[in-house]
TrEMBL record:
Belongs to the class-III pyridoxal-phosphate-dependent aminotransferase family. PROSITE patterns: AA_TRANSFER_CLASS_3. Its cofactor is pyridoxal 5'-phosphate. It holds the Pfam family Aminotran_3. The keyword Lyase does not apply. GO terms for molecular function: pyridoxal phosphate binding; transaminase activity. Keywords: Aminotransferase, Pyridoxal phosphate, Transferase. This is Aspartate aminotransferase family protein. Gene3D superfamilies: Aspartate Aminotransferase, domain 1, Type I PLP-dependent aspartate aminotransferase-like (Major domain).
Length: 464
């Protein structure tokens, strides 16, 4: 059997990695010089690296390991499925049990009339599906010019050409361009952009940019709006309470389709099965991935409402699909993940235990001299680092420099907490216990204290 070992010394692994492995969203040469941290094992919320450090994973991998690491049931299911039927496609009038069972289960879990699933291999691919699906829908409805999709600046929808174009991150557009027919409006990021307005008034204003954009483009040209219930990669931006109800009013008024990108917010992250339930959003399509399999196998998809599925299905072929759409092993693993989430009442644990316990401690971070605001929905949180809380000032110098320094302190203290600009973010596995939350918070305080002392010593605790 081909066994992947971790037996080489760390430096040799790092040298091979540097020589042959291109990392996503990474400055390759700089990492090669420094050496990547080699992760070797995971159990629950804990990771072990090749040097034997026990690290608490405050990010659930990349927001995906909802049930925690090391659940052997998923491996057993994967092995069984590989023996039974390792692969078959679903293109040519065929199907298989894992795809059927997973689609039916997702239809049961998803709210409203979201009853149909188009599978993909990832969240990015699912959003590419969504672009084609909504354009195809309006084409069948004899409005083929309705093809523009409105999204938000600083939104994240993946990094394929379609996903990256829907996303509002200009640094992604800068590498390879952006496809046509996608427009961006402002984000509901009160802390950074709300000025003197109240969060509620600001949320309303940002939602009304959608109406202005629809009128500017002409409603006859607009197919859909896409948004994450809470922006994840953009910095865990929790919208003001006024935002989603106003977005919903506008999409209803103009009859455009609403896509909720639930890739992070799905499968318990916000304390409900879906973020749309937490925020009272009624989407026509939900994008799913990440927590769908807790990251144990690559799988994503689009959960589609009756009307779109019926319209597209009755019009003949939909010329779209992936070799691995509904891959049987990935589907079986996802089903087992959903069984664990459900039977072990992990979402109840988020809502009734982990969220309340963490919220009290997370919000107390605003007592720290450099933390301006703390946000936590379910188990998805952020803090804003600032040199002046009263004015919500940015730090002098390049944005993100302070966040990076803070993240480095977290790394040194065996805590994985990410930075987005000068915000620090967490999204731990949903199974995290109060005792583990205590460890996470202790390391977070220590890291913030060290970062603060370092900034002071270097004369960098100054406003822009
Ligand atoms: C991660 C993410 C994606 C992309 O998913 P991949 O599986 O990385 O392609 C899309 N949307 C959101 C909201 C995400 O967080």
């Amino acid at each position: 059997m081909n066994k992947i070992t971790n037996h080489l010394p760390t430096a040799e692994l790092q040298a091979l990695d540097a020589a042959h492995h291109m990392h996503p969203f990474t400055a390759g040469a700089a990492l090669a010089k420094k050496g990547a941290r080699v992760m070797t094992q995971g159990k629950g919320v804990w990771l072990t690296d090749s040097e034997g450090h026990k690290i608490i994973d405050g990010m659930a991998g990349l927001w995906c390991v909802n049930i925690g690491y090391g659940r052997s049931e998923l491996g057993v299911v994967a092995a069984r499925q590989m023996e039974e039927l390792a692969y078959y496609n679903t293109f040519f009038q065929t199907t298989h049990v894992p795809a059927i069972a997973l689609a039916a289960k997702l239809a049961e879990l998803a709210p409203g009339d979201l009853n149909h699933v188009f599978f993909a291999g990832s969240g990015s691919e699912a959003n590419d599906t969504n672009i084609r699906l909504v354009r195809r829908y309006w084409q069948i409805k004899e409005q083929p010019q309705k093809r523009i999709i409105i999204a938000r600046k600083n939104g994240y929808h993946g990094s394929t050409m379609g996903g990256g174009s829907l996303g509002g991150m200009t640094y992604i557009h800068a590498h390879g361009g952006k496809i046509d027919g996608i427009e961006h409006i402002g984000q509901p990021h009160w802390w950074a952009e709300g000025g003197e307005m109240t969060p509620e008034a600001f949320g309303l204003m940002r939602a009304q940019e959608l109406e202005a954009k629809i009128l500017e483009l002409g409603v006859e040209n607009v197919a859909a709006f896409i948004g994450e219930p809470i922006q994840g990669a953009g910095g865990v931006i929790v919208p003001p309470s006024t935002y989603w109800p106003e977005i919903q009013r506008i999409v209803d008024k103009y009859g455009i389709l609403l896509i909720a990108d639930e890739v992070i917010t799905g499968f318990g992250r916000t304390g409900n099965w879906f973020g749309s339930q937490t925020f009272g959003i009624k989407p026509h399509i939900m994008t799913i991935a990440k927590g769908l399999s807790s990251g144990y196998a690559p799988i994503g998809g689009s959960i589609v409402c009756d009307e779109i599925a019926k319209t597209v299905g009755e019009a003949g072929d939909f010329n779209h699909g992936y070799t691995y759409s509904g891959h049987p092993v990935a589907a079986a693993v996802a089903l087992e993940n959903l069984r664990i989430l459900e039977e072990e009442k992990i979402i109840d644990h988020v809502r009734d235990v982990a969220h309340p316990y963490l919220a009290e401690r997370w919000n107390a971070l605003t007592d720290h001299p450099m933390v301006g605001e703390a946000k936590l929905v379910g188990l998805m949180g952020s803090i804003a680092l600032t040199p002046d809380k009263a004015t919500r000032a940015k730090f002098a110098g390049e944005e993100g420099k302070v966040g990076f320094r803070c993240r480095e302190r977290c790394f040194a203290n065996d805590l994985i907490m990410r930075h987005v600009g000068d915000r620090m973010i967490i999204a731990p596995p949903l199974v995290i216990t109060p005792a583990e939350i205590d460890v996470l918070m202790e390391r977070a305080w220590k890291s913030l204290d060290e970062c603060y002392a370092g900034l002071k010593a270097d004369g960098l605790f100054v406003s822009a």
